Amino acid sequence: MKAIWALGNSAGDSATHRDIILKHGALQPLLVTVDDPNISQEILKQGVWAISNLCRGSPLPKVEVVKSAIPTLCNVISSQTDLDVLKDAIRALSHLSRSETTIETVVSYSHVIPALVS
Question: Is cis: bond before 71, omega within 30 of 0?
């Protein structure tokens, strides 16, 4: 859990740090961790927060690097009730939805729209 916190904290500090973390492939293991149905709520919360930090910043990260987070974030939004987890997942999806390509991908996950509305 401390490693997840360190990645999320470093990514949130600057776009330069975020891009280095993404360049070294840290997003994929985070997605695998968050997708694990046996994950503890505490690690889920930390993982979604870290993913959110990897998807934000100015300038935004390259879409092709972070768009793989969309299915995981949509699943989290559709299945979770923890407000902190939902807040970070929605924030990340919001950042990812700033390009035409990714907004179409988000909308293609039709199960996420009712969850967002509710």
Answer: no
Give the model's pLDDT for residue 100. Answer: 73
CA 102 vs CA 7, 25, 63, 107, 108: distances in Å: 24, 20, 7, 9, 10
Half-sphere exposure of 60 (CA within 13 A, CB side): 17
Residues in the chain with pLDDT < 70? 110
Q: Are 38 and 73 in contact (CB under 8 A)?
A: no
Question: How distant is the alpha carbon of residue 41 from its chain centre?
Answer: 16
Strand (E) or helix (H) holding 94: helix 83-96
pLDDT tens-place string over residues 60-79: 898 889 989 999 999 999 89
How is residue 96 written in tokens? 């990812």
